[in-house]
Design goal:
Structural class: alpha/beta
Distance between the termini: 62 Å
Order of helices and strands: EHEHHEHEHEHHHHHHHHHHHHHHHH
Radius of gyration: 24 Å
Number of domains: 3
CATH architecture of the largest domain: Orthogonal Bundle
CATH superfamily of the largest domain: DNA Cyclobutane Dipyrimidine Photolyase, subunit A, domain 3
Number of helices: 21
Strand content: 5-15%
Bound molecules: flavin-adenine dinucleotide
Length: about 475
């Protein structure tokens, strides 16, 4: 009997360092490289994230064709796709990487009823089940999690699997559905070559200044690898290996510290994945039950102003425009925008979480939820609720000359730096001198920060008083 396996591609759209693929290759005479375009990926996803996914699949298909096979695409719920395939061919098993969202886990349980499904661990370097406290419980605070993470062995280049040079053929007669049309997401070309080039370029350069530059919005000091990690065009192990090699080769304590700070960010990614695995209900509400009664405002106009980059706070609006135009936002920007929505507008963080998922090219349920709960102060490991970002101070600190602001809000480019952050502080005469009319080219602030701060402190206090 011919032994047929499925390589079920989900968050591992790559050939290199792919354990699920290699396991499938080693165990089959015929191989179906399968991707299922489930409704969640097509209907609910941000257009730029969808385009990224489709381009990545198209690129993977080309790589597969060079190895004499091709991608088999099915649209619709995974269950129907598997039932249909299992009805058409005698499929022995499927291999995939384990995913941790409640949706994925339920889906995988259903598929395991149809055929043997082997789930391999690897969308993070250290699987959520393996970084635990000594008593076997999961960590809920980042720093001890991180210490444990680093105390475990780190990978070296020999651990990364090479690309397969030959692949088993497809079963004869198998058909694939057509990949839907897409317009490539311009800022993030979704190809294996681009992913490798970005990784190499970052490891060969910017990583050495990461700690010093990562917070400055105009400096582009971060890797911008998040969509590539999100969809697995790069494996977590490969990325961590490269960073670890750079760390070992660095010739000063200062350089090592810059690199270690970047690795810490990859550990945040693993931490939030672990949180989602162990506490799936974070997708439903606050991690900390004492914050489930925050009296959020129901202020649709304010939410709309935030979404439409019309808050009148230039740094916030610049961040929201970066998101709108590129599908990506700088991490400092995400924190500023999230703090503004939750603390200045006292709007439920879940509205922001939802908006980010509808727009981010790297939208990832675990990282996004973690970031929002951190910003709202409701999460695992949060700044205390009384630490409220002042959007103007944040702008002055992390975009001192307003360069990032005017990149995205060019209406303010003729103003000197101090007014780029607070245009409302200009006198009428000054404004006229710059050809600017207050509230005309750019809106006035929709809320006074000092007032909003007091309102939020009172609201959080009242929630803590009424557990
Ligand atoms: C409100 C909010 C929402 C967020 N939503 C997402 C999201 O949907 N998807 C996402 O990948 N990240 C999210 N982040 C985390 C972070 O902002 C992005 O990962 C980062 O900005 C991506 O840019 P980069 O690749 O240049 O990161 P770098 O600074 O170069 O970091 C390297 C990698 O580490 C990971 N990473 C970095 N910071 C974090 C973090 N705080 N939490 C988890 N992983 C991290 C990412 O995979 C990133 O690509 C969110 C943060 C906040 C505050």
């Amino acid at each position: 009997m011919t032994d047929i396996s499925i390589w079920w591609i989900r968050r591992d759209i790559r050939l290199q360092d792919n354990h699920a693929l290699i396991s499938a290759v080693e165990n089959s005479d015929q191989l179906i490289p399968l991707f299922i375009l489930e409704p969640q990926l097509m209907v609910d996803a941000a257009p730029k994230r969808r385009a990224f996914l489709l381009q990545a699949l198209s690129d993977l298909d080309q790589q597969l064709q060079m190895l004499g096979t091709r991608l088999i695409l099915r649209q619709g719920p995974a269950r129907s796709a598997f039932e249909k395939l299992a009805g058409e061919f005698e499929i022995c098993r499927a291999f995939a990487y384990e995913d941790y969202s409640p949706f994925s886990r339920q889906r995988d349980q259903a598929i395991a009823q149809i055929l043997p499904l082997y789930l391999l661990r690897g969308i993070t370097y250290h699987p959520p089940q393996e970084i635990l406290k000594d008593d076997g419980n999961p960590y809920v605070v980042f720093t001890p999690y991180k210490n444990k993470w680093y105390s475990e062995p780190l990978p070296n280049p020999a651990d990364c699997l090479p690309d397969p040079k030959v692949l088993p053929p497809l079963p004869s007669g198998i058909t694939s559905q057509q990949l839907p049309d897409f317009v490539p997401a311009g800022d993030f070309p979704a190809t294996a070559d681009e992913a490798q080039a970005r990784l190499e370029s970052f490891i060969g350069g910017k990583i050495r200044h990461y700690q010093s530059r990562r917070n400055f919005l105009a400096q582009d000091g971060t890797s911008q690898l998040s969509p590539y990690l999100r969809f697995g065009l790069l494996s977590a192990r490969e990325v961590i290996t490269q960073a670890q090699m750079a760390y070992i080769q660095a010739n000063s304590t200062a350089a090592r510290s810059e690199i270690r700070t970047w690795m810490d960010e990859l550990v945040w990614r693993e931490f939030y994945t672990a949180i989602l695995h162990h506490f799936p209900n974070v997708l439903e509400g606050p991690f900390r039950p004492d914050y489930k009664n925050i009296p959020w405002r129901d202020a649709p106009d304010d939410l709309l102003a935030w979404q439409n980059d019309e808050t009148g706070y230039p740094i916030v609006d610049a961040c929201m425009r970066q998101l709108k135009h590129t599908g990506w936002m700088h991490n400092r920007g995400r924190m500023i925008a999230a703090s503004f929505l939750t603390k200045d507008l006292l709007t439920n963080w879940q509205a922001g979480e939802d908006w980010f998922m509808k727009n981010l090219v790297d939208g990832d349920p675990a990282a996004n939820n973690g970031g929002w709960q951190w910003s709202a102060g409701t999460g695992t490991d949060t700044a205390p609720y009384f630490r409220i970002f002042n959007p103007v101070t944040q702008g002055l600190k992390f975009d001192p000359d307003g360069d990032y602001i005017v990149r995205w809000v060019p209406e303010l480019q003729d103003l000197p730096p101090q007014y780029r952050h607070e245009p409302w502080k200009m006198s009428k005469e000054d404004a006229q001198g710059f050809g600017f009319t207050l509230g005309k080219q750019y809106p006035l602030p929709i809320v006074d920060h000092a007032f909003a701060r007091q309102r939020t402190l009172a609201a959080y206090k009242s929630a803590r008083g009424n557990p």
